[in-house]
Structures are given as structure tokens and as C-alpha cells.
Write a structure and sequence with these properties.
Two copies of one chain form a homodimer. By secondary structure, chain A is of the alpha/beta class. Chain A has ten helices and ten strands. At the A-B interface, helix 8 and helix 9 of A face helix 8 and helix 9 of B.
């Protein structure tokens, strides 16, 4: 029920995922609404069931309020399926804050992990990297950052098949001893850990692909991700304006439009498969609120992969 | 003596500024080196003097070490001229940390301001805005953010001629009550102030131009600025790659190269005139380490404008 294009694009995307992979779908939401969507889409032979959840958490609803007032929301009901072992993973395009709050309350934390973190995969000059925390824990202690790194390391090793992921700490200088107090303390902890810690990484190097995992607190991480999204959009508009300033360029721009669009979409990070909520006891994927069917499909695929690789176990 | 292209581009840029405006130049550095540069450039009739400073602070030198060990560096000597009233403004393309440390030690803070902040002007969809702190004070208390906003407000009103600048607080949600502890507390202070505070601004909206002044701590601000620089570069390279993938596009790309370059350069923020060190008792402009002559010229111009508008007085 969550997201700007729910339920139609969400249902459509889930069906695409079920058709592509070996996935049993539980569609959680208002039964009549979900049924109406299903009637419009071919889904014969697909293993789909609907789980009733009468309430809906609004995108701008305060997470703490939702938690108190909406125990029958699709987020709450879906996460309970996970808790009870009736589902292996939960995917939502709803309110990020809502999903984080309900997941904490319902699933609890993994052993040795004090706070959750959102792991966001993003494109780099050399492929892909993950940044975390993307916004689950705004105020962090140094130990949390170490735990985020351990979580991310495990996910990248087991699910993404990256051997000894290179871990960088987002900071305002390359040298040790740079940064705010949090970053300086976290640097020490990361250096003493058994992780493949390569040191500080500055904002200008985040997209170079020299590390597999960028660690930061949820405030800085969220600002960084949303800034990237906004900047990519701004640059595209600037380019488009420049390109339409005279007739020759206008003609050229026509041929380049697909290329321009592709470059920007890579940065609309959560569109590309959803972000992982790491640290809670369960596989939870948060898709972007603006997700279309293709984005939901890849978010469900990402959740399925996490289940198949059993990264949460042992 | 500071910056990647010092002294040649620095001297060249300073001469351009002197020729364009009503500016008396004091070139601070190793006299023989500066003289050698001057000999290669036409400068007849320009009011130029050289002030000897035998030491040079390296770009990667630790600011605290430089402060102790290099009392005769061009940064130290230049700031002393300011302190003694022999100069009205100081411009450097040298180590940012070095300039901040020496400026604090030499000039001291303005009344009522506890910490310095770097004000960085950047392009938006509607013109220009200023972000501060760009990296002078990594660990901030809420009161510092209020003081940054007051400083930035005064600068934008007096020097840039913006009436009642719209002030936004960089945060991870639009609603009040969002953010880390620092942002939540700062929000309250800004709301109670007499500033034209428009509320929180998310990363994705920073480039939209809905505010004139974006307030954040020096850690987040520095990450945001460097990330923008790195992302603009990354997007350009991605586009260029896409554009050269087949012959037709290759041909098209040839015509578009200038447009692409212009779009990226706007984001290489400190290239466009230098950042202001606000809060210290004097006009200090920090130009990007990679500054060429044109960038130095506009940094000197920015410093001169700050002096002419007497924004520091009363």
C-alpha cells in the first residue's frame, strides 16, 4: 500500500518478480484494493496470496505515531509475517521511517548490533559500492559505525560475493586524525578491526569506486544520498537548457536524450533495487517511494537473493 | 605561495584583478620567486608591492604543525598585514586548514561568534546560494549553527545585496522534529531568531534555489561540497563514455563538449571565486587549491567587494 504509485505499480512489479524468479508472493494490503489490481493483470499459475491489512501508513506520517496507531497497517502486518516465519523477506515502498520503526519493534536487532542502518547500493566509475547508514540512525556512537561496517561487510561478502570488501570511512580529509570526534573515534575502531579497512574517504572520491563500502552516520549518509539525487537532477536540467539554446544543439540533444536520462537514473539510487535495512533480525528491503514496477521488481529480486544466500544465518 | 598552480597562476590572477579593479596588490611570498613571475608578465603602472615571506605551508601539512613551525609562511605574514591594518583583505589558494588555523590565531573571532565557518557560494536552478560551514568547524554545538546563520545573513545582505535572505537548515526531513540532536536543537534556535528562517532543507532540494543560505556543521557541509564536486565529475565522465559508444554519438559529442564542461565547472565551487572565511576579524578568502588565474582573479574580486561593502563594521 506504500509509495507514490501504490498499489498499481507495486503489484505489477511484484508479479514481474514472481514470474522471473522462484518466488512465492504474499501481497499485504487492503484485500479489495489488491484484488482489483490483480484482476487487471495476467497472473495465472503464479503463487500469489493476499494478506489482509486494513490500515495504511501515510508517507509523511510520523513513525512513532504510526507505530502506536496502526498495528494493522500493511507495514506492521508484513513484518509480523516475517517475525512468525510465514515470510522470508519483506519489501516496502512505503515510508522509510515507518518501516524502520516497525522493523525495530517487530523483529528486534541482530546479536551484537545496537542500531539499524540502511545500506544503499550506488553506481561508481568502476561498478557499484554500498553506502551505509543511509538514514536509519541519525545520531551515532563510534561503535555503531564499526557495527555498520561489520554488517555491510557480511552482506557484501555473502550476498554480493565480494571477497574482503574494501571499507572506507566517509570523512573530511584522507589522513588519520581528520574529521569530527565521531569520525576520529570510528577510524580507530575500524583500524583495529579485522575488516579490510582502507582508511578515510572524502566526498569527492565516493564515486571513484576505490572502496566497496562507505561507512558514515545516518545523518551525513542521508544528506549525501539525497544531495546526489538532487544534484544529478539539477545537472541534467542545466545540460538540457544548454543543449536547447540553439537549433543545432537542439537537434543533437534529440539523439542524446536517452543517454542523459540513463546517466541520471543511475543516481536515483533507490529506484535501482531498493535499499537494505541491515541490523534487524530479518530481510527487509525499502524501495524508493517513487518506485515504478521495474524498481519494485528489482527490489523483490534483491530481497530474494538475500534470502537465498542466507546471509543472516550464523 | 599556496595552491597547485602557485606561484604562476596566482600572480597572474592577482594582476588580472588589479587591472580590472581599484586594487592595491601586496604579493606575499618568497621575493625572488615572486619577482621572477612578475618579470614574465606585463604589470607597468599597477600598484604592486612584494612582501617577503620565506616559508611555505605545504598543502597536506598539519595545520597545528604549520602554526607552530612556520611563523614566516606566506599565510602567516599575509594575515599579519591584515591584523596590523596594512592590508584590507587576504586571499590564499593554500591549505584550507592552514588558513583557518592561522586566521584564528592571528585575527581572533568577531564579537559574539564562537567558531569560524567557511561560506561557499554555489549555483542553483534559480541563481546562487551560500552553504556554510563548508569545513572550518567539524564539531558544532547548536549555538554555533545559529551564529553561522547570523554571519551568513549579514554577509548576504550587505555584500550580495539580498534583502532578508531565506535561511534553511540542512536536515534529513522537512518537518520540525526531524534530524540528529544537533539539527533539532539548531532548528529551535533558528526558529526563535529574527532571521528569515524557512525551515529544514533536504539534500535533494539544495540545488533548487528555494533558500539563499544553507546552514550545517562543518563536517556535513564539507562532505556535501566535496561529494558534489566528485559527483559532477563522475556524471560528466559517464556521459562522455555513453557519448563515445558509437560513431554517430561520437560526432555529436564533439559539438557538445563545451556545454558539458561548463555544466561541470559550475559545481567545482571554489573555482568560482573562492570561499569566505566568516567569523574571524578580517576579510579572508580561501581559493580552491586547483585555482587557475581566472579563479584567483575572481577570488580577489570577491575579497575587494567585501572590503568595499564594509560588512565587518558595526
Amino acid at each position: 500500500m506504500g509509495g507514490d504509485h501504490a498499489p498499481s505499480e507495486v503489484v505489477k512489479g511484484a508479479l514481474l518478480a514472481a514470474r522471473a524468479g522462484d518466488i512465492d508472493l504474499l501481497l499485504v494490503g487492503q484485500t479489495t484494493v489488491v484484488e482489483a489490481e490483480l484482476r487487471q493483470l495476467p497472473h495465472q499459475g503464479l503463487p500469489i496470496s493476499i494478506v489482509e491489512a486494513p490500515q495504511v501508513v501515510a508517507m509523511d506520517e510520523h513513525p512513532a505515531n504510526a507505530l502506536r496507531q496502526k498495528p494493522q497497517s500493511s507495514i506492521a502486518v508484513g513484518l509480523h509475517l516475517l517475525k512468525e516465519g510465514k515470510a522470508d523477506a519483506f519489501v516496502s515502498a512505503g515510508s522509510t521511517g515507518g518501516v524502520v520503526a516497525f522493523a525495530l519493534a517487530t523483529l528486534g536487532m541482530m546479536n551484537g548490533i545496537e542500531r539499524p542502518a540502511i545500506g544503499v547500493l550506488y553506481p561508481t566509475a568502476k561498478g557499484q559500492a554500498m553506502l551505509m547508514d543511509g538514514g536509519a540512525t541519525a545520531d551515532c556512537r563510534p561503535a555503531y559505525l564499526l557495527q555498520f561496517a561489520q554488517l555491510g561487510n557480511r552482506y557484501l561478502e555473502r550476498v554480493m560475493g565480494i571477497h574482503r570488501p574494501r571499507v572506507g570511512l566517509l570523512n573530511i580529509g584522507e589522513e588519520e586524525g581528520k574529521g569530527n570526534r565521531l569520525a576520529m573515534e570510528a577510524h580507530k575502531l575500524l583500524k583495529e578491526s579485522s575488516l579490510n579497512f582502507v582508511g578515510n574517504i572524502e566526498g569527492k572520491d565516493v564515486f571513484k569506486g576505490e572502496v566497496d563500502l562507505v561507512i558514515t552516520d545516518g545523518f551525513t549518509g542521508n544528506v549525501a544520498l539525497k544531495l546526489s539525487e538532487g544534484l544529478a537532477e539539477f545537472l541534467l536540467v542545466t545540460l538540457r537548457d544548454t543543449l536547447t539554446r540553439n537549433t543545432l544543439r537542439k537537434a543533437l540533444a534529440y539523439f542524446l536524450r536517452p543517454a542523459l536520462r540513463r546517466a541520471a537514473e543511475g543516481l536515483d539510487y533507490r529506484r535501482a533495487g531498493g535499499a537494505l535495512l541491515l541490523g534487524v533480525q530479518g530481510n527487509v528491503v525499502i524501495a524508493h517511494g517513487r518506485s515504478d514496477a521495474a524498481a519494485i521488481r528489482s527490489a523483490v529480486g534483491r530481497a530474494a537473493k538475500a534470502v537465498q544466500e542466507r546471509w543472516l544465518e550464523g
